[in-house]
Predict the structure.
Amino acid sequence: MTDGGESRLSSRRTVLLIAPAVLLIGTFMLVPMLIALAYSFMTADPYGGVTLPFTLDAYTQIFYQRDFDGTPVYSNDYLFIILRSVWLAVATTLICLALGLPLAWYIVCQSKARQVVLLFLVTLPFWINTLIRTYCWVLILRSEGLSNHLLLHLGIIADPLPFLYNDGAILLGLVYTFLPFMVLPIYANMERIEPLSIEAAFDLYAGRIAVFRRIVWPLTRPGVIVGVMLVFAPALGSFLAPDLLGGGKKLLIGSLIQMQFTSSRNWPFGAALSIIITIAVLLPLVFWPRLVGKGGHKP
Amino acid sequence: MSDRIRFFDWRRTPGLGPLTVVVLLFLYAPLVILVIYSFNGGRTVTIWEEFSFRWFVRVAANSNIRDAALNSIIVAVTASVAATLISLAGAIALERGAALRWRSLISGLVAMPLVVPEIVTAITTLVFFSALGMQNGLLKLIIAHTVFCVPFALLPIRARLREMGPTYEEAARDLYASELKLLQRVTLPLLAPAIASGAVLAFVVSLDDFMISLMVSSAGSTTLPVYIYGMMRLGVTPEVNAISTVLLGFSLILVVTGLFIGRRSRTV
């Protein structure tokens, strides 16, 4: 009845079963991305949408802005927004790594029952609405907020400090949002380390640093790479933290893209920016096997 | 360095315990602060006046919030049921199916909603729907939510299928069970907890989504997070605290249920 192994479904049945998922995501995710790719090479319609002719304007617009009479003038405004977004995403990733690595190691070193509890506590915020999690920091940081209230009350400061609406607040919000993404994959890899190999290393007079460098790090690296990608990608395109904590005055890519489809009505530019960050995020996945392979096969 | 080093316990790195406590405080203290403030009866958000349910009552009486909440629930129920059914079929195909030529490509495609930045998914979906000329706001939301719910529903079901291995199914086949009987009597009962867990997680992801709903929803079909965002933009008010606490509590209850069902399935 079935072809191949006995416990396998026929290929016709397999195709029928996987078809809904492939059709759904293909139609409503892949096709829209291809349409956006096409739109990014078209001309903006001032009333929203796109018109012909095909042009590279949306991409060159990152460097040149049209003057009143239409002549292109070099401008680094957009480039600056992109660089600032990349900088914030890199900083978020590094802070999450610096916190996530020791945290994951601590969890791995606990008894099985405590591991389950700690892991649950670290994962739980992931499922809570990002909007609400970000808003909590508005409550704490704003000038009439909790932290200023406390500092004023204790007499440490005389006037409220502007904690909100700067890069530091955005960074805090991003780390807060994405930290669980870093801890989980690192933990998943650390958990598989054979404790005997660590004990053997200690018996051979290896110190903490040597054990980390020679045993823990090589075996944890694939998890670190996954964590870095899981934090960097959404941090680069983040909208809420810059909007609520950054005040939306200084733009980041996420808000810039969103603006092109609402107030600015420049769909091709928004599409071009989307294509650029998608490529930036997907590129590491292409090199993925090579990145992981290097760490995994070391003795 | 020192030769005494081998006598200490490598499982205890100094300083990591306190660090973990600080990180957990960092993760949870802001949520606790929000919940406490939502019970503050005073008009000013920061200064504590009295314990009161006043703002929850105010929120419950707001018909806009009720409409948005109803939209959110309609979308979340429909999208999570659809995504779970699609994922169930997909998981069985991927774990038990014949070796397809594009298997890894299909796995990649199905994981796409997890990888592509949310803002990009949001605007490409918006562009696609407007190119199709789709007007029904709720339908647009349901389709968009089903797409990003699939990977979340798929995950526990696939993991469970892989974990339980083909042994039970092979045994049933050896006893001449038809494919339908096999599915009915063996595969589905064994998968039930994972299916429930996947459905609950998909429901939570849909309920919590903000970015995609913001771009896709139209005037008549606002979801609760999008409506709350609109309130937040107007300023920090006690109403925002109260409705945020309600949504927070609801998600927490659901997630704990979902993860609990998922954990129990693993010990069976």
